[in-house]
Amino acid sequence: MQREELYWKNCTEWLTKCFTCGYCGNLIASGKGYYAYVGEQTEEYLFICPYCLRPTYFDSSDNQTPGPIYGNNVDNVPDNVGTLYDEARKCISCNAYTASMLCSRKLLMNIAVSKGAKEGQSFVNYINFLSEKNYIPPDGKDWVNHIRKKGNDATHEISIMNREDATELISFIEMLLKFIFEFPTIIKRKSSNSTFKNQS
To answer: Domains of the chain: which residue ranges?
Structure first.
């Protein structure tokens, strides 16, 4: 939904730039914003999103800040799970990869509790719970071990996580959220609508 309450003063119009807004996630084409010169050459840009009206910065190497939010939205998840998932994705957009890993680790724990695991357990217990209750596909066991190791490294070691570490975990969690929450809700809705039509 477009916002109409913000007005950027002295905004300039120039060539349109296409990019994915790091705030609202829309693929946009913006030609409004601000620019800065180095000598006589334009080097720095600030584009205004036409949907959410927030600014996105591009440096002389065309690096975007904030970057696009990694991953996709997932429907029908519990509020606390959805909040943590979005937080972990946004961390990646601002290159906070270790923070994203720690948030994703907490997210896996919240997913397990939302499906019946007891609070106050260890991370390993939560991962085992998801596996034993068949929330993790059979061929996903290697991923579980990989996540367990990376999660422990991010939490207990001084090593710094990188983008590959963080995006791998988000991709796996996105699949889990769709498998556990989104797809079952879609099927239930379709079954309910089918039953209603048959009764009519």
So the answer is: 12-65, 79-187
Instruction: Give pLDDT tens digits for 147-179.
Output: 777 777 767 777 788 899 899 889 989 999 999
State the Cα–Cα distance between residues 49 and 33, nearest whole angstrom: 9
Give me the half-sphere count of Cα atoms (radius 13 Å) on the Cβ side of residue 139: 1
Residue 63 identity = N
Given a contact cutoff of 8 angstroms between Cβ atoms, the answer to whether 153 and 98 are in contact is no
Which pLDDT tens digit goes with each residue over 111-130? 999 999 999 998 889 988 99
Pairing between β-strand 55-58 and β-strand 12-20 as defined by DSSP bridges = unpaired
Residue with tokens 């994703």: 104
Helix residue ranges per DSSP H, the chain: 79-93, 97-114, 123-132, 141-156, 163-177, 183-199
Amino acid at 169: L
Model-wide pTM > 0.85: no
CB 104 within 8 A of CB 175: no
> Nearest-CA neighbor of 176 among 89, 69, 100, 77?
77
Query: Cα(170)–Cα(107) distance, rounded to whole angstroms?
Result: 10
- CATH number listed for the domain at residues 79-187: 1.20.120
Q: How far apart are CA 133 and CA 77, in angstroms?
A: 18
